[in-house]
Design brief:
About 25% of the residues lie in helices and about 25% in strands. By secondary structure, it is α+β, with helices and mostly antiparallel strands. The protein has an eight-stranded mixed β-sheet, with no helix packed on it. A hairpin with a 3-residue loop joins strand 64 (about 800-805) and strand 65 (about 810-815). Helix 9 (about 895-920) packs across helix 16 and helix 13 crosses helix 15 (about 1065-1080). The longest helix is centred in the middle third of the chain and has 49 residues, at about 845-895. The chain is globular. The termini are far apart.
Length: about 1500
C-alpha cells in the first residue's frame, strides 16, 4: 500500500546536500543514511500543518492533521489515494497542535492530542449525525458505516456481529448497497381480497430466515412476516396485508392513499417501502363533473358503468348497456362560446353533446351552480337547449359554469371536460366614470353612460365620446434628462382602452410611452418618459379624443454627483456610504453600482444625498461607483471606492465574565480604522448583543453581554452589520466559506457574579460626619481575575477610592465629606453590570442626640401600643358591622333575583339580535389605527392638538348620513410655504438624524426634564411626538425607552420602588403608555374589541329600559350611585312606527318610553336607522324634525318645548310622549331640516331654574330643611335605590366577566409578546437591584399594563370605537374601571358603612378577579423568553404594518420647538456629556438650529 505524502508550510523546494541525508546517523546505535531521496506527489496541501496521524480502515485511509490554529483536520482517502471527504474540529482556537498525536491503544475510536495549554481526547468520527443509510455511506467517512439490523450509523466496533458479512456496510461499498425493498402488488384495490404481499428485499442484509420478523404499518398495526429460506443480496419475504377495517381513511378529494410499511426485525425497523390503496368508486365523488372521463383516465384499472353512473374496478358489476371503454367515448358536453349577457336578461343556450345517444330523451336540467337550475330540452341527439335562462349578478362580470345533470338526481352530471361558461355582466357595477363604462364594449358589455353606467337599450344610439381626461395626480414630479422615468398618471376618463392613449401622453413636447401591462382603464397610466433636449418643466397632457392637462408640472432636471464618504471600507462589505450631489431625488428608480455590477443595498435618498450599504467584494482594490437613474448611463462624477483588507481579530481578553455581563473585553487585531460599528454576541446562553467601541486601528473594547447561566459559550462579532469570518481558515481551505461563517473562533467563560460583604458581615455601619472613613470589603473567592479598576464602590452618590485589592479583601476610603446632615446612605459595589448593596451607612450625631432618640422612641412605642388597642377595638366593631351589611345585601339580592333574571333574559335577547346584526352588517365600528393613535397619544397634551377631532361643520347626504372626516395635524400635509420648504426639509432631516442618535436623544430628554418650567403637559406632548417621529423604527424607540426606564428605576429604587410608574409624570412613562398602546393594538382589536363593544351596547340597552332625566342626566338603571334617579318614575314602553324621509330604508318599529323627551325619542330613532353606520356619520337630533300623524288630516311637529308645554312652580316641563298622548303603534315621520334651530340649544345645558324634565329641582333645594333623621336616612342608600344598582349589576355581569376574561387571557396563536418582553425586563431590573419582594414586582407590572393601558381604554371607549360616549355610559364605565383597578391591587379592601357604593358593588367579585389577574401574570412568566432578535423582528413588523400613516415632519417640527426653547440648556448638557462631546453632537445640533432658527417661526406665521 502506498503511503500518502502531505506538505506543510515548511515543505519548500530546496537542494539537498549530503549532510542533509544523514538523518541523525551519528546519534544512532546503527549507522543510517539516505543515499537516494524518495520523491512523491503531495495528496493534500495546506498552510500551517503541525502534526499528522494516519490509520488504515478497510480500503480507506484516514489522515488526521493538526494546524497552528488549534484545529484538527480529518481527511478520508480512497484506495486510489484521492481525497473523498474532509471534516474539521476546533480543539483550542489560537493554540497550535503539538506534533505528537497518538491513537488510544485501548480504543482506536479515540485520538489523543496536545495544544499549548491542554490535552484533548477526540473521537475519530461522529457517525450518529447521519440518520439514513444513504447519508451515512454517502458521507465517505472512513470510520462510519451502516449497521443494518440496528438501523443506525456507527463505527464498526459499535455494531453487533459487524465482523460477519452483510451486518455492517462500509463507506467503500457505496450507497448502492444500502437496504431497499419493493412491495408486490404495489397498487391494491380497496374492494378486492388479497392473500398476502410479496416483499423483495435487496442490499446488504444478513439472512432473515431465522429471525423474528413483522410488517409494521404504523399506529401499532403489525402483521406476521416470514422468509422461506436463507438467502443474501436479494431475499423474498411474505407478509399479511393489514386488516380491511384498519385501512387508514382516504384523504379528502383523493381516490387513493399511500401507505408506508416497514419490515421489523427483532423489534427494530430495518427497511421501508410504500404501496398504494385505491378505490375506483370514489372517482365520481372526487370529480363529479368529469366522472366518466376521470374514471377511464385513472392510473388504476377502473371501468365506467353508464347505467349506474358509477366507476368500478370489476367490469362484471356493470349492467348490460353500452359502456364506454376510453375517455373519448364518454357522454360529454362540447365547448361552445357564448356572448356575454346582461344581468337579468333571458336567453336560450344551445349545448352541443357527444356520445349522448344513451341519454337521448332523458329528463335533463341545466345547472349554473348553487340553486341556478333551468329546464333542458332535447333538440336532437347531439344538442340540448337550456330554455329561458335568467342569471343575475351584483358583480361587474361573473362567469357561471354550465353543466347538464339528470333531473331529480343532482349528483349525476354529464361529463364536461371543457365546461361551457356563461358570462353575465352588470353595467351598474364597477364603472364609476364614462371611460370605464364605455370601455367595457371590448368585453362585449353593451353599456352606455347616462349619469352613471347603464345597460344600453335596443333602440339607444351607439355611445358617443366621454368628457376630457381629468388628471388628478402625477408621480414623480421630476426625472432625468435621459428619460426612462416611469411616470404614473392617476385620474378619471384616461381612455377607454390602451389604444386611445397609446400616442397621446406628452410632457410639453416630449412623448411619454404608456406601458400596456401597467394601464388601468380610465384610472391610471404608467408611461416611460422620453429624452428631453434640455432642462424643461411643463404640464402633462393626455389626449383621448379630448385633451386633459395636469395641475402639477413635470420637470426634466440634470442630476449631479460631487463626492462620497467614506471613500474606503473593508471588502466584507457593510460600509455605509453617502454620495453627495444635487437633484438626486428625481426619477422613479435610482441604482448605485459598485464596479458597475454589484448593487448597493438599503438605499435611501434625498435631494442632495444618497446613502447605501456597499456589498462585499472579492478583492481589495479600488472600484468605480456608478450612480444611474432609470437604468440608463451613469451620472458623471468619477467616484471611486477603495475596498481594503478586512479587519482581523487576533485575540480577546479577558476570557471570563460575570454572568451579569458588562465586563470590558479588549479585542485586538488589525484594520479597525475602517469599522463603523461593531457588536458582540454570545451564542446559546447570551442575552442581547452589546455595542462595542473602536479605540484605534488595533483595539476595540466591548462590554460583555449578560448570560442566562454559568457556562462557556462561543462569541461572535458583527462588524458593519456583517458576521466576522476567519479568513485564514477559508484561505487554508480547511473550511467552506459557509462553515467559516458559522464557526465561532473565541469563547467566553461565564462565572457566577462576585459576592461581597463587609468585613464583619454587618448590615449597618455607624459613622460620624466629618470623621475619615475607610471601608474593608470582604470578597468571596472567584476565578474572574478582576483588576482593581474594574471595581467601583459608592456610598450614596460619593465614590470610594480603592487603594488595595487582593483575592479576598478590598480597601477603599472616602476623601470628601459625606454631609453634615444625619441620614442613611447605601454602600454599593459594582462590577460590570452587577450591582450589590452590601450595607447601609448610618450618619449619626452626638451621644445626647442618641439618648433623646431613645426617649422619643420609648414614648412613640407606648403611644403605638395604645393606638393599636383602640384600632383593634374599632376593627372588631367594623368587622361586625361589615358582616351585618353583607347579610343585608345578600338578603336584598335574593329579593331582586327575579327582577335580575327577567332583565337579563330581555337584555340577552336584545344582545343576541345585536350580535346577529353585527355579523350581517359592517361589524364593530373600530377606528382606524391612525385615529386610535392620535386619540390615545394626544388627548390633552399640547395646544397644537387640543382642537376638536371632528370638524364642527357637518354636511348631510341624501341618506341622512353625516359626512365627517376626522382631522389631526399629524395626519395631514406639512403646511409650510414653498419658499421655506428646502431649508425646513433639510433642517428637519438633519434633526431627524440627530434624534436617531441614541446618545443625543437621551441627553436631550434628560436636559428638558431637568427644567422646572418643563411641565407634565410638555413631557406628555414630547413623549407622544417622539413616538410618532420614531414610529417607523420601533426597535430603536424601544431601546431608548428601556434606557430611560433604567434611569427611572434607579431613581425609584433609591426611594420607594413601589411608587414607580404609578403616575405619568415623566417623558419615559408616557413613552411606555404609547409603546403599550402600539403593541397591544392587535390584541385590543382581535380579542378584546368584541366583548368590550358588547358590554357598551348592553349598558346602553339597560339604561334605555328606564327613565332618564334629560336635564340632570340621572337614570333609573345605572351602576353609579351619583347618577341614580332617586324617584320612582313609572314609565311605560311605546312601540312607534317611524319612517325616515330621505333614507332608503323602510319604516322601522322603534321602542321608546312614554317619559322620554322628544330629543331622546329622536336619538333612539336615529340609533335604529343608523346602527350599521359609525357614529361620526350620524345626523344629530337637532338636524331632524319629528312629525306625528294623529289622523289622515292632522299632523304635529313634536318638540321639547312649544306653546303646549306645562308650567309647574314657575318652571317649564319638557314635553314627552305622554304629554302629547301618543298611543302605542303611532306613525311618526322624521325628516332632515335645512337650518338648525339653535334657540333651544342642548337640553342638558338648559337652566334648571327655568326648566325641568322628571324631577323638579325644588326637591333637592328643600333637602336641608328635612329633619336630621330624614337626612341620615337619605345618606344611607334606601333599598329601592340599592335594588336598582344591584339589578343593573346582575344584568350586566356576564358581559363584564367576558370582557375581563378576554383582557386577562392568553391566546396560543397570538401570545402577548410585548407584555412578556416588558415583564421580563422588569424582573431583570429588579433582580439586578436585589429587589426580591414579589409585591413590588406585581405593582410594577400592574402599573405598566393594566392601570396604564387597559384602564385608560375602559374609561375611554371613544379611543377605540366610532361611538357616542354619553354621560351615563361614562359613569358606569368609571365603576367598572374601579373594579378592574381593585382586581389588580394586592392591598386588602377595607370596606365599611362609609365606603362608597361604587366599591361595595363588586366587593364579592374582586377576590375571583384577583385570582384571574395572578394567573395571567403567572402565564406570562411561564412563556418562553424572547430574544432581542425575536422582539426586534416583531417590532419591525409592527412598524412595517403601519408605515406612512403619520406625517413625521410635523412631529419633528414640533419637537424642534422644544429644542429651540431650551437651546442653551441642551447645549450645556451636550458639552458636559463625554460621548456627545467626542462625537461632536453639539456642533450638529448647532447646524440644525442654523438651518431652522430663522425659518420655522416665519414659515409658520406665513402659513
Amino acid at each position: 500500500m502506498r503511503r500518502p505524502r502531505f506538505r506543510g508550510d515548511g515543505a519548500s523546494q530546496r537542494e539537498l546536500h549530503p549532510e542533509h541525508l544523514d538523518c541523525g546517523a551519528p546519534h544512532l546505535q546503527h549507522p543510517l543514511s539516505i543515499l537516494q531521496p524518495l520523491e512523491a506527489t503531495p495528496m493534500f496541501r495546506a498552510l500551517g500543518l503541525t502534526s499528522v496521524a494516519v490509520a488504515s480502515i478497510d480500503n480507506y485511509t484516514a489522515v488526521f492533521l493538526g494546524t497552528v490554529n488549534g484545529r484538527l483536520l480529518k481527511i478520508s482517502l480512497n484506495e486510489n489515494m484521492q481525497v473523498v471527504s474532509r471534516r474539521v474540529v476546533t480543539v483550542a482556537y489560537g493554540e497550535p497542535v503539538h506534533h505528537v498525536m497518538q491513537f488510544d491503544p485501548a480504543d482506536s475510536g479515540y485520538l489523543y492530542l496536545m495544544t499549548s495549554h491542554q490535552i484533548a481526547k477526540v473521537k475519530v468520527a461522529a457517525c450518529d449525525v447521519h440518520s439514513t443509510c444513504g447519508d451515512c455511506v454517502g458521507a465517505a467517512d472512513a470510520y462510519c458505516g451502516w449497521c443494518a439490523l440496528e438501523s443506525r450509523c456507527t463505527l464498526q466496533q459499535d455494531c453487533a456481529n459487524s465482523s460477519q458479512q452483510h451486518f455492517w456496510t462500509s463507506a467503500s461499498e457505496g450507497p448502492g448497497r444500502c437496504p431497499a425493498m419493493t412491495v408486490l402488488p404495489a397498487e391494491i384495490d380497496m374492494h378486492q381480497e388479497y392473500p398476502g404481499m410479496i416483499l423483495q428485499v435487496s442490499g446488504s442484509l444478513p439472512s432473515l430466515s431465522t429471525m423474528e420478523m413483522a410488517c409494521d404499518y404504523g399506529n401499532n398495526i403489525r402483521t406476521v412476516a416470514r422468509v422461506p429460506g436463507p438467502a443474501f443480496g436479494h431475499q423474498i419475504a411474505y407478509c399479511n396485508l393489514l386488516p380491511r377495517d384498519q385501512f387508514p381513511p382516504f384523504p379528502p378529494n383523493q381516490d387513493h392513499m399511500t401507505v408506508e410499511m416497514s419490515v421489523r426485525v427483532n423489534g427494530r425497523s430495518i427497511v421501508r417501502a410504500n404501496f398504494t390503496i385505491y378505490d375506483c368508486s370514489r372517482i365520481a365523488q372526487v370529480y363529479p363533473h368529469t366522472a366518466c372521463t376521470s374514471c377511464l383516465s385513472a392510473q388504476w384499472p377502473c371501468f365506467w358503468c353508464t347505467q349506474q353512473h358509477s366507476c368500478v374496478s370489476n367490469q362484471s358489476r356493470c349492467e348490460a348497456s353500452p359502456n364506454p371503454t376510453s375517455p373519448q367515448d364518454c357522454p360529454r358536453t362540447l365547448p361552445s362560446p357564448l356572448a356575454p349577457v346582461p344581468t337579468g336578461g333571458s336567453q336560450n343556450i344551445l349545448v352541443p353533446l357527444a356520445n349522448a345517444a344513451f341519454f337521448q330523451g332523458a329528463a335533463l336540467e341545466c345547472s349554473f351552480g348553487l340553486e341556478e337550475v333551468f329546464e333542458a330540452v332535447w333538440v336532437n341527439e347531439s344538442i340540448v337547449r337550456c330554455d329561458q335562462v335568467v342569471l343575475h349578478t351584483t358583480q361587474k362580470s361573473q362567469v357561471f359554469p354550465l353543466s347538464l345533470q339528470l333531473k331529480g338526481q343532482p349528483a349525476r352530471f354529464l361529463d364536461s371536460p371543457e365546461p361551457m361558461t356563461a358570462v353575465v355582466y352588470n353595467c351598474a357595477t364597477g364603472s364609476p366614470d364614462c371611460s370605464q363604462c364605455l370601455g367595457r364594449e371590448d368585453l362585449g358589455h353593451l353599456c352606455v353612460w347616462n349619469d352613471g353606467c347603464r345597460l344600453r337599450g335596443p333602440l339607444q344610439p351607439l355611445p358617443g365620446t366621454c368628457p376630457a381626461p381629468e388628471i388628478r395626480e402625477i408621480e414623480p414630479l421630476s426625472g432625468p434628462l435621459d428619460g426612462g422615468t416611469l411616470l404614473t398618471i392617476r385620474g378619471r376618463n384616461l381612455g377607454r382602452r390602451l389604444s386611445d392613449v397609446a400616442h397621446g401622453v406628452w410632457i410639453g413636447g416630449v412623448a411619454c410611452e404608456p406601458l400596456p401591462d401597467r394601464y388601468t382603464v380610465s384610472e391610471e397610466i404608467v408611461c416611460v418618459t422620453g429624452p428631453a433636449p434640455g432642462l424643461l418643466s411643463d404640464v402633462v397632457t393626455v389626449n383621448a379624443s379630448k385633451e386633459g392637462k395636469s395641475r402639477d408640472r413635470f420637470s426634466y432636471v440634470l442630476p449631479l454627483v460631487h463626492s462620497l464618504e467614506p471613500a474606503m471600507g473593508p471588502k466584507a462589505g457593510g460600509t455605509r456610504i453617502t454620495i453627495h450631489g444635487s437633484d438626486l431625488h428625481v426619477g422613479s428608480e435610482l441604482q448605485v453600482l459598485m464596479n458597475d455590477t454589484d448593487p448597493c443595498r438599503e438605499l435611501m435618498r434625498t435631494d442632495t444625498s444618497v446613502a447605501c450599504t456597499v456589498p462585499e467584494a472579492a478583492l481589495a482594490a479600488p472600484v468605480p461607483v456608478c450612480v444611474r437613474f432609470e437604468r440608463r448611463d451613469c451620472v458623471h462624477g468619477n467616484l471611486t471606492f477603495w475596498y481594503t483588507e478586512n479587519p482581523v481579530i487576533t485575540a480577546i481578553s479577558p476570557h471570563r465574565s460575570p454572568v451579569s455581563g458588562g465586563r470590558t473585553i479588549t479585542v485586538a487585531g488589525e484594520h479597525f480604522h475602517m469599522v463603523q460599528n461593531v457588536s458582540m454576541t454570545v451564542h446559546h446562553i447570551g442575552r442581547e448583543p452589546t455595542l462595542c467601541k473602536v479605540l484605534n486601528s488595533t483595539l476595540i473594547t466591548c462590554p460583555s453581554p449578560g448570560a442566562l447561566s454559568n457556562a462557556s459559550a462561543p462569541v461572535d462579532f458583527f462588524i458593519n452589520g456583517r458576521a466576522y469570518a476567519d479568513e485564514l481558515a477559508v484561505a487554508e481551505e480547511l473550511l467552506d466559506p459557509e462553515e467559516a461563517q458559522q464557526g465561532s473562533r473565541f469563547h467566553l467563560d461565564y462565572l457566577p457574579n462576585p459576592q461581597f460583604s463587609t468585613a464583619k458581615r454587618e448590615k449597618w455601619i455607624k459613622h460620624h460626619p466629618g470623621e475619615p472613613l475607610t471601608l474593608v470589603i470582604h470578597k468571596e473567592q472567584d476565578s474572574l481575575g478582576l483588576q482593581s479598576h474594574e471595581y467601583q464602590v459608592k456610598i450614596g452618590q460619593v465614590s470610594c477610592d480603592i487603594q488595595i485589592v487582593s483575592d479576598r479583601v478590598i480597601h477603599c476610603s472616602v476623601n470628601e465629606s459625606l454631609g453634615e446632615a444625619e441620614g442613611q446612605l447605601p454602600i454599593t459595589i459594582q462590577v460590570g453590570n452587577f450591582n450589590q448593596t452590601i450595607a447601609t451607612l448610618q450618619l449619626g450625631g452626638s451621644e445626647t442626640a442618641i439618648i433623646v432618640s431613645i426617649v422619643i422612641c420609648s414614648v412613640l412605642l407606648l403611644l403605638s401600643v395604645v393606638a393599636l388597642f383602640v384600632f383593634c377595638t374599632k376593627s372588631r366593631r367594623a368587622e361586625r358591622y361589615w358582616q351585618k351589611t353583607l347579610l343585608q345585601m345578600e338578603e336584598m339580592e335574593s329579593q331582586i333575583r327575579e327582577e335580575i333574571r327577567k332583565g337579563f333574559a330581555e337584555l340577552q335577547t336584545d344582545m343576541t339580535d345585536l350580535t346577529k346584526e353585527l355579523n350581517r352588517s359592517q361589524g364593530i365600528p373600530f377606528l382606524e389605527y391612525k385615529h386610535f393613535v392620535t386619540r390615545t397619544f394626544f388627548p390633552k397634551c399640547s395646544s397644537l392638538y387640543e382642537e376638536r377631532y371632528v370638524l364642527p361643520s357637518q354636511t348631510l347626504n341624501s341618506q341622512g348620513i353625516s359626512q365627517v372626516q376626522e382631522t389631526h395635524p399629524l395626519l395631514g400635509e406639512w403646511k409650510i410655504p414653498e419658499s421655506c420648504r428646502p431649508n425646513m426639509e433639510e433642517g428637519i432631516s438633519l434633526f431627524s438624524s440627530l434624534l436617531n442618535n441614541k446618545h443625543f436623544l437621551i441627553v436631550f430628554v434628560h436636559a428638558l426634564e431637568q427644567q422646572k418650567d418643563f411641565a407634565v403637559r410638555d413631557r406628555c406632548s414630547l413623549a407622544s411626538l417622539l413616538t410618532i417621529a420614531l414610529h417607523g423604527k420601533l426597535e430603536y424607540y424601544t431601546s431608548i425607552m428601556k434606557e430611560l426606564l433604567v434611569d427611572l428605576i434607579d431613581a425609584s429604587a433609591a426611594k420607594n420602588p413601589k411608587l414607580m410608574l404609578r403616575r405619568t409624570e415623566s417623558v419615559v412613562e408616557k413613552m411606555l403608555t404609547n409603546w403599550m398602546s402600539i403593541c397591544m393594538y392587535s390584541c385590543l382589536r382581535e380579542t378584546v374589541g368584541e366583548p368590550f363593544f358588547l358590554l357598551l351596547c348592553a349598558i346602553k340597552q339597560q339604561i334605555n329600559k328606564g327613565s332618564i332625566d334629560a336635564i340632570t342626566g340621572k337614570a333609573r338603571y345605572t351602576l353609579n350611585e351619583e347618577w341614580l334617579l332617586r324617584e320612582n318614575i313609572e314609565a311605560k314602553p311605546r312601540n312607534l312606527n317611524v319612517s325616515f324621509q330621505g333614507c332608503s330604508m323602510d319604516s322601522l318599529s322603534v321602542r321608546a318610553m312614554d317619559t322620554d323627551t322628544l330629543t331622546q325619542v329622536k336619538e333612539k330613532i336615529l340609533e335604529a336607522f343608523c346602527k350599521n353606520v359609525p357614529y361620526s356619520q350620524w345626523p344629530r337630533a337637532e338636524d331632524v324634525d319629528l312629525e306625528w300623524f294623529a289622523s289622515s288630516t292632522q299632523s304635529y311637529i313634536l318638540r321639547d318645548l312649544d306653546d303646549t308645554s306645562v308650567v309647574e312652580d314657575g318652571r317649564k316641563k319638557l314635553n314627552t310622549l305622554a304629554h302629547y298622548k301618543i298611543p302605542e303603534g303611532a306613525s311618526l315621520a322624521m325628516s332632515l331640516i335645512d337650518k338648525k334651530d339653535n334657540t333651544l340649544g342642548r337640553v342638558k345645558d338648559l337652566d334648571t331654574e327655568k326648566y325641568f324634565h322628571l324631577v323638579p329641582p325644588t326637591d333637592e333645594l328643600a333637602e336641608p330643611k328635612k329633619s336630621h333623621r330624614q337626612s341620615h336616612r337619605k345618606k344611607v342608600l334606601p333599598e329601592i335605590y340599592l335594588t336598582r344598582l344591584l339589578s343593573t349589576k346582575g344584568t350586566l355581569q356576564k358581559f363584564l366577566d367576558d370582557l375581563f376574561k378576554a383582557i386577562l387571557s392568553i391566546r396560543e396563536d397570538k401570545p402577548p409578546l410585548a407584555v412578556k418582553y416588558f415583564f421580563d425586563f422588569l424582573e431583570e431590573q429588579a433582580e439586578k437591584r436585589g429587589i426580591s419582594d414579589p409585591d413590588t414586582l406585581h405593582i410594577w407590572k400592574t402599573n405598566s399594563l393594566p392601570l396604564r393601558f387597559w384602564v385608560n381604554i375602559l374609561k375611554n371607549p371613544q379611543f377605540v370605537f366610532d361611538i357616542d360616549k354619553t354621560d351615563h355610559i361614562d359613569a358606569c364605565l368609571s365603576v367598572i374601571a374601579q373594579a378592574f383597578i381593585d382586581a389588580c391591587s394586592i392591598s386588602d379592601l377595607q370596606l365599611g358603612k362609609d365606603s362608597p357604593t361604587n366599591k361595595l358593588l363588586y366587593a364579592k367579585e374582586i377576590p375571583e378577579y384577583r385570582k384571574i389577574v395572578q394567573r395571567y401574570y403567572k402565564q406570562i412568566q411561564d412563556m418562553t423568553p424572547l430574544s432581542e432578535q425575536e422582539m426586534n423582528a416583531h417590532l419591525a413588523e409592527e412598524s412595517r404594518k403601519y408605515q406612512n400613516e403619520f406625517n413625521t415632519n410635523v412631529a419633528m417640527a414640533e419637537i424642534y420647538k422644544y429644542a429651540k426653547r431650551y437651546r442653551p440648556q441642551i447645549m450645556a448638557a451636550l458639552e458636559a456629556n463625554p460621548t456627545a462631546r467626542r462625537t461632536q453632537l453639539q456642533y450638529k445640533f448647532e447646524q440644525v438650529v442654523a438651518l431652522l432658527e430663522d425659518n420655522i417661526y416665519e414659515c409658520y406665521s406665513e402659513a
